[in-house]
From TrEMBL:
Protein name: Vitamin K epoxide reductase family protein
Membrane topology: Multi-pass membrane protein
Domain Vitamin K epoxide reductase: 52-198
Primary location: membrane
Pfam families listed in its UniProt record: VKOR
Keyword Membrane: yes
Organism: Bifidobacterium aquikefiri
Keyword terms, alphabetized: Disulfide bond, Membrane, Oxidoreductase, Quinone, Redox-active center, Transmembrane, Transmembrane helix
CDD domains: VKOR_5
Family classification: Belongs to the VKOR family.
Biased composition, class Polar residues, residue ranges: 1-39
Residues of the signal peptide: none
Length: 250
């Protein structure tokens, strides 16, 4: 990650960290930047869009949005627990119905003893962690390599979980929750930004160990293919909803 040498004490000579033009921190002694020599493909990732400020700012906004939606969904879960027959504000019709989704088993997959816990509760916990990670990124805090890798896997797990719930809602429950869709899209943007930061800021995977993969990912982001894929992904999901459920929605 990016940093200022004064943030980590006095560092002189060959051990002094260097600040890349894209805002990534890399040093021969850095635990988070294995394989970042003079010929690293990541050196071509220059400009504001590949720096820590932009990537982690996008992640922060998406994570805050997801956290707010998780609070709303948690409130609705508590409302249904008190009043099982209550009609929620987002119950528009038979298809667009938050209460139908909230009362399905998929909305509470974690059970402990005789208790079940709404997924939204875990969303609050998870998004709080992602917000913290985004703030660390914006602050250019140095983190161990294993932490960065674990963070990416955690983001992937959240992304896959959100889309599992989406497919269950679309094709099994046959009801759509507007707040759940907002959470899914926020999680999507969050993961896209996190992946971008993992490659361009942290320079993972290592270009020494995974040269071909590192070069491909560097080109993917340098040529802005990620923007095209991100937009196409979101448009495709929205189109799927409209094609499959559009008649019932409107």
């Amino acid at each position: 990650m990016t940093t200022n040498s004064n943030d980590y004490g006095q560092e002189t000579g060959s051990n002094r960290p260097s600040l890349a033009t894209n805002g990534s921190f890399h040093s021969s002694e850095s635990p988070d930047n294995t394989g970042t020599g003079d010929n690293s493909p990541y050196d071509r990732l220059t400009g504001w869009r590949h720096g820590a400020t932009w990537t982690y700012l996008v992640m922060l906004v998406a994570s805050i949005s997801a956290l707010l939606v998780s609070f709303i969904l948690s409130g609705e879960a508590l409302e249904l627990a008190r009043h099982p027959n209550a009609k929620l504000e987002c119950d528009v019709n038979a298809l667009v119905s938050c209460s139908t989704v909230a009362q399905s088993w998929q909305a509470e997959i974690v059970h402990f003893g005789g208790l079940s816990f709404p997924n939204a509760f875990f969303g609050i916990a998870a998004e709080s962690i992602f917000i913290t990670i985004a703030v660390l990124g914006l602050a250019r805090a140095r983190t161990p390599r294993w932490f960065t890798i674990a963070t990416w896997w955690g983001g992937l797990a959240a992304f896959l979980y959100a889309y599992w719930l989406f497919t269950q809602s679309m094709f099994v429950i046959n009801a759509l929750c507007p707040w759940c869709l907002c959470l899914m899209f926020a999680t999507t943007i969050q993961f896209m930004a996190l992946s971008h930061a993992t490659v361009s800021v942290h320079r993972i995977p290592s270009s020494d160990r995974f040269g071909t993969l590192a070069s491909s990912l560097a080109s993917y982001y340098r040529l802005h293919f990620d923007l095209m894929i991100d937009v196409l992904w979101i448009v495709a999901v929205a189109a799927l909803i409209l094609i499959d459920k559009g008649a019932a929605i409107f």
